[in-house]
Design a protein that fits this description.
Layout: H1 6-20, H2 25-37, H3 42-46, H4 53-87
Helix pairs in contact: 1-2, 1-4
């Protein structure tokens, strides 16, 4: 397993998001930037052994799942708010 630089690792994660989950470039980049802001990749920066293509694939699955869960939660909240407003 080859260890990537931190930048190469983030590029790999972004590329995999576009290839595996068919996100457009802007959406993939936003997901990676948001994950960075939430300190998702801090360990990867500190531990070179965490910066592999195999780890990138695992992280991509995690990031996409979190994105889906967040969207579902937001949709449920919006639906509840609409129902509440229509009753009031």
């Amino acid at each position: 397993m080859t260890n990537l630089t931190y930048e190469e690792f983030l590029d790999e994660v972004t590329t995999l998001l576009t290839e595996l989950y068919e996100l457009d470039d802007a959406a993939a980049i936003k997901l990676v930037v948001d994950a960075q802001a939430a300190d998702f990749f801090v360990v990867h920066d500190d531990l070179p052994e965490m910066r592999t293509v195999e780890q990138a694939k695992k992280d991509v699955a995690t990031l996409f799942e979190q994105k889906q869960n967040k969207q579902q939660t937001q949709q449920k909240q919006q639906k509840r708010a609409q129902q509440k407003n229509s009753k009031g």
